[in-house]
Design goal:
The protein is an alpha+beta fold. It has 13 helices and 14 strands. Strand 1 and strand 2 form a beta hairpin. It is globular and about 60 Å long. The termini are far apart. Belongs to the glutamine synthetase family.
């Protein structure tokens, strides 16, 4: 179903399935699939795939930031080189002709991994763990909304009609009957996922109207980031089949809860195969507590990665069920860092801060970086919280500029992510913020037009 070891195996895999075309794709900083479509024969007969360096310097609107003292564009917009990762080879089951998709990695002309490519960023963080003899394990949970088609951005989004012919109006958390409203769509999601070798652990109806959540099985962080990247494409395509949109906006509707991408994390000692968060007698280890403490200290510095757009911070409102603090607790969903009850070998930390709009490669990399720094610096967390922390002081940035300021001024994050990545990411996000500020909102027209 998914992945082959090398180019020769890829030839056989594609020939057996009579694949005519290949989508050669790479995730950009926003998690958008960039790349080229080409006939199978050209893929094997042509040179290495190239694309301009500017694909990793685009804002979400397709604009480019201006040069400053830290960030400069490639003056000639020269080519980058892209090498296929054959372990990601799979079909594109929604295409009418037999088509495959293959994720590529970005390199400079000199053959070095490009620092600003999200997949390379995650690999950079994973190398830190590898050098310690550790292997992190993650399990993402992705929330999203189904909405009526919306072709005019001036109009608010609305829930779609289910098989009953009626849209949801209330909140139906974990409702099976609400999930059954979209049975045909869900069947398509499962079918398209199976054809790509993507493994869904569970699917539930979340709190919002027509809000769903997909939980993925735990595994290698790079593999799981690839799966989230492909799942987003898959869910959008399945929704379009049923005349709906699927959106991963963090806060698509003002009167509904936001959508998150929770990340469960544990760390395995590669030599022994044991979870380093559990001692010989099942007790919590200093490494586990330091992993938590690392998140408490460094999450505010990487919030701009967990919440990458202006809209992301609407999810962090005082009336929201989304935790906006870095407290931790056992099975407490009002804190940003939850420790689910589990066996010692399955002990893990759930980071509840990232939004579903976050780039999965970057969000997983940032979360693992926080934990890594906590362990290597021997940090200690505060006491776990067992009460409702929803109304406690907010310790995360409340807006994109504030979050970017913490990120770019953090020496630890510049060292972990690389100066080139931090410079590029901040330039893109500041440009996106300026673009947003040029748009006048309905709220301003409603309350300021005749009152000020």
């Amino acid at each position: 179903m998914r992945g082959v070891p090398d180019v020769e195996a890829a030839r056989e895999w594609l020939h057996t399935r009579n694949i005519q075309d290949i989508e050669c794709i790479v995730p950009d900083l926003a998690g958008v699939a960039r790349g080229k479509m080409m006939p199978t024969e050209k893929f094997f007969s042509g040179p290495v795939m190239t694309m301009p360096a500017s694909i990793f310097a685009q804002t979400i609107s397709g604009d480019y930031p201006e040069d400053d003292e830290w960030f400069q564009h490639n003056p000639t917009d020269g080519d980058l080189y892209f090498r296929p990762d054959y372990s990601t080879l799979t079909t594109v089951p929604w295409e009418s002709d037999p088509t495959a998709q293959l994720i590529h990695d970005a390199y400079t002309r000199q053959g070095a991994p490009l620092e600003t490519a999200p997949r390379n960023v995650l690999k950079r963080v994973l190398k830190l763990y590898e050098d310690k003899g550790w292997e992190p394990v993650v399990a993402p949970e992705i929330e999203f909304y189904l909405v009526k088609p919306n072709t005019d951005p001036d109009y608010p989004l609305e829930p779609p009609r289910g098989r009953s012919g009626r849209p949801e109006v209330g909140r139906q958390s974990y409702s099976i009957s609400a999930l059954n409203e979209f049975d045909d769509l869900i069947d398509d999601i499962y079918d398209l996922s199976e054809q790509q070798g993507l493994e869904i652990d569970t699917m539930i109806h979340e709190e919002g109207a027509a809000q769903m959540e997909i939980n993925l099985r735990h595994g290698n962080p790079l593999v799981l980031a690839d799966q989230v990247f492909l799942f987003k494409r898959t869910i959008r395509e399945a929704a379009l089949r049923h005349e709906m949109y699927a959106t991963f906006m963090s806060k698509p509707m003002s009167n509904q809860p936001g959508s998150a991408m929770h990340i469960h994390q544990s760390v395995i000692d590669k030599e022994s195969g044991r979870n380093i968060f559990a001692g010989e007698n099942g007790e919590e280890t200093p490494a586990f507590l330091s992993f938590i403490a690392g998140h408490q200290k460094y999450l505010p510095k990487v919030t701009c990665v967990m919440a990458p757009f202006v809209n992301s911070y609407r999810r962090f409102s005082k009336t929201s069920t989304s935790p906006v603090n870095v407290y931790w607790g056992y099975d407490n969903r009002t804190v940003g860092l939850r420790v689910p009850y589990s066996s010692p070998q399955a002990r893990r930390l759930e980071n509840r801060i990232p939004g579903s709009d976050a780039n999965p490669y970057l969000a997983i990399a940032a979360s693992l970086a926080c934990g890594y720094l906590g362990i290597v610096h021997g940090l200690k967390p505060d006491s776990p919280k067992s009460d409702d922390c929803s109304s406690r002081s907010k310790s995360l940035p409340r807006g994109l500029p504030e979050a970017l300021g913490k990120f770019e001024k953090s020496e630890e994050m510049v060292e972990v992510f690389g100066e080139q990545f931090v410079a590029t990411y901040r330039a893109i996000k500041y440009e996106e913020f300026e673009t947003f500020m040029s748009v006048i909102s309905p709220w301003e027209r409603e309350y300021l037009l005749l009152n000020v």
